[in-house]
Amino acid sequence: MSDTSPSDSPETSGPTDFDAMTRDIAEVPAVEVIVTVAVNLMSAAAVKLGLTEEGDKYKDLDEARKLIHALAGLLDGSATEISSFHAAPLRDGLKSLQLAFREASIVPDEPGQGPGEKYTGPIYG
Q1: Cβ-based neighbours of 116, under 8 Å, separated by 6 or more
Q2: pTM
Q3: Are the CB atoms for 94 and 116 separated by under 8 Å?
Q4: Which of 8-17, 75-84, 93-102 has the least mean pLDDT?
């Protein structure tokens, strides 16, 4: 038998108020959710491209490719749902990531074959 009672474990440190969590989620506008997800994808891609202070410590171009492709798909799919006020800087960030990916690749993809270019068209740099 364990010396730790169930009430001492982190999972049961207090009752989870799922109704409050649902209300919190319900109050967030869809545009804010989309932009937040896009920014998270951009940040993760930058890390995987080695563009952070840590440099090459977390660099992984295969992972960066997936993240950039997902970001491009999200922006393409939500283009009519978010205003150009939100979309323009996200598209600029995506293009910067695509160019950084192209520069970081030892063997660059053919124009139109890079990450996310299925959605954005060829990126030249």
Answers
A1: 68, 69, 71, 72, 73, 94, 98
A2: 0.81
A3: yes
A4: 8-17
